[in-house]
Amino acid sequence: MTPSHDLEFDVVQTSPKSRIANVVSAFGSVRERELGNSSIVQLAIQLINTGLIAAAIVLLSEIMARGTMVDVVEYMTSSNHPGLVAVGVVFLMLAFADAIIGKAYQSTLLIAPLTLLPAFFSGQKQLFLSDPLYPSDLLFGRQILQLLPAMVVAEPMKAVALAIGGLVAVAAFIALIWKSRKVFPRLNLTGRGIRAALSIPLLVGFASLMDPMAFSAVRDRLKILPMMWDQNENYRHNGFLLAFAFNVPMANVAAPDGYSNVAITDMQTDLLPASIFSGRRADVIVVMSESLWDPTRMSSIRYSTDPMPTIRASQSGHVFSPEFGGMTANVEFEALTGFSNAFLPYGSIPYQQYIRRPVPSLATFFESKGYVTKAFHPFQGWFWNRNNVYQSLGFRQFHSEETMPAMDKRGIFASDDALTRYIIKEADNTDEPFFFFAVTLQGHGPYERNRYVKNTIGVDAPTLSDRSVSALETYTQGVKEADQSLKDLMDWAKKRRRETIIVLFGDHLPPLNEVYTESGYMASVVATRKASVETMKREHETPLVIWSSKRGTQKDIGSVSPSQLPYYIVHMAGYRHPYYTGMLGRVAERFAV
């Protein structure tokens, strides 16, 4: 037989039962191929959906962080911005988390809150301060919670809305987690493996690009440009997520090349040892007044009387604050140590991050001269880590709310008058020369209506809304009472036999919000980080008084950085020191700020 005949014979000889089996087998092969193709399509659809979720997360985070749609579309679509890169990174994070969890899309419940909540807080922070959210800000969440009562009093409806919104969000989140057991499709090992193989190497590679101090050609081609010197532009160009990631390693301050104890010891110096040259030992009281500022600088507003006559008559100049509306601890750090935050990573908070062991300060200097050193602040000692920081700075005693007697309040904050009377009492009970450092609290915002029984200074502000007028009246009354407290302290000092040096300055401008824009004083409700000299001075200068009970006011100091205050304090006290009067003195001759 020919081969064709053989084939015909085989077919003919096949039984009906065998033919049915062959058909079933052939159908099974086709079905397997269809299922294989279906799995690939399903995986592709899941990855596309994950990409859309990533895009939605980045879009929402930018809207929340910026507080506006301005620039968001350009950021997400322009080839000059890394918006699509941010989407890609979030996509990889979602894919990796799905691979670990074992269900498609369930990673959204983890990644979305971790990205959207910080973005929301960044937008809220910029309503009151000049800067976006930094990783270091997460260290003082407890401080924010402590100040919530004041915010609730000032914005009760907003507080209620946020509370309800928060409860709804938490309830929805819990419900989603509960439902996710059935809603999100389970992944097989192949799907999980593909996601892991795709995401892990790319995430590791991307992480290697995120050192802002190292050059990366790949990063440049992706239009990711670290701008650590201008954080507002850094966040605007790179977006919240990438800029926030850039700031994570910035908290680590690396030692400069060549730095060691031996190198420091071998340095040639021509500095004089610390000594006294005046023969006197004056007592020193430094008062950093919370949000103290001159509201009469807003020229479009008229007041029934000068709220700060004592300060104005004794004013030595201005402190050019590095902060606006908050971050008191950073100004305090500079004023006590003479060290500038300009040499630390942007957004650093030394009190929270770096002071873990003894650090030279005015307290250690004056203690070395036989002075009693005390710090005063009528609030919780843990706030800004002051319990530990003051000890590291050399203060032998710290009087906080926990150790002080109950004080009269203005709103929820201790009054300047009560704190001043307490300082005077401590001074009267101290025989030795002393260095006292006090941080007031009464001037803290927000400036709610009815903080005071009566506002005694009238405000004529035709361009301000009723709400802004109310806030300004409350703030101005606080300035008046701070001024009166300074007068009381000076009157007491004049009666003392030993010379008393009093230094008073504001830590930053108050968070008056729309008062600034409605009055035309500022273009925004917060200060700018880069502007002309005159604009920067308007937005950062606070009053400075350096006064002696025996020699009067030191005049014409000009505008100085808080880090230069130790120079003026030590010099007026009659001492010289290699750093405080030597180096800082030479700096002051060349740079005012």
Automatic annotation (TrEMBL):
Residue ranges occupied by any Sulfatase N-terminal domain in the UniProt entry: 283-575
Highest taxon, organism lineage: Bacteria
Topology class, membrane: Multi-pass membrane protein
GO CC, one annotated term: plasma membrane
Coiled-coil ranges from the UniProt annotation: none
Main localization category: membrane
UniProt entry keywords in alphabetical sequence: Cell membrane, Membrane, Transmembrane, Transmembrane helix
TM region(s), chain numbering: 40-61, 81-101, 159-178, 198-218
Subcellular localization: Cell membrane
Annotated protein name in UniProt: LTA synthase family protein
